[in-house]
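Throughout our pipeline, every protein is held as a single compact record rather than as scattered files. Such a record has a labelled line for the sequence and another for the backbone structure tokens. This encoding replaces a full spatial description with a residue-level series of whole-number codes. For reference, a complete record is included directly beneath this paragraph.
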Amino acid sequence: MTRTVAFPGLGLEFHLNRVAFELFGLPIYWYGVIIAAGFLLAVLFCYKMAPRFGVKSDDIIDLLFFAVPLAIVGARLYYIVFYLDLFRNAGGSLDLGKMLDIRDGGLAIYGGVIAATLTLIVFCKVKKLNFFAFADVGVFGLLIGQCVGRWGNFVNVEAYGGPTDLPWRMGIDAYVNGAWQYMEVHPTFFYESAWNLLGFLLLLVVVLRGKRKFDGQIMWGYFLWYGFGRGMIEGLRTDSLYFFHTPIRISQLLGFASALVAAGFLIYHLVIQKHTPEELYVNRMKRKAEGAEAPRPQTFHDEEEQHGSDSD
């Protein structure tokens, strides 16, 4: 099915088909292709940046074997819990097939973030790595994935907002009250994609200019930036996940709450608790490596052994 999406204020029009191609008769959707592309870009960037944080690039790959499947499971479970009625059969029973079918959407970002965070905690504990340094790398991957992934929502014609007459409004045919009708709405998928891109660039500048003062700073910066932006943008959307049968938008609640907590940590560590460059995990790893590579100073005992062997 092809759907038309227009931006009348910008003179743009797109004819979108959700199916990218077929593989052995099975439709492969653009949503999945775009998510996969975002994932690949995120992995490549984190692999390249890892040494700046004292993290081995190989550890990034090792983590992915656990984090990726668990993040997908977490994102799907989060979506199912708050949209459970979508997965019921006519008789009220749950449709397991529908629950497992993620080719065409139905992944909640917050569920994936929560699952990935828990996986990273366990991974770092087992391998005796610094969680906060690792997380500082990882959030760049999240921002890339979220920035690119939102365009999957565009192809699916979803994650849009309420009516607006702004110049960049998006014109769509939406199914409302049992009938299809033309609407001009907020392109909230684009708002979030652009917000994530800007956040990625700002945090990257912090790292590249040496403004990172403590391990976890980038992680908390991500939660502050993404949480606040998500909370604001979520208020414009018409397809929010609600906290069961309440008027509370769950992603808006989590967004503002995480931003508030992150702001508290950043204020404490940047204003109250002073940090030195020597505390950073990457610098501690450098000192450790330099110490291991430095030649052991010769002792009196060593000289005695050398003279003894010479006399023999």
Notes: The radius of gyration is 25 Å. Strands lie at 2-7, 12-17, 19-23, 26-29, 170-176, 179-185. The longest strand covers residues 170-176.
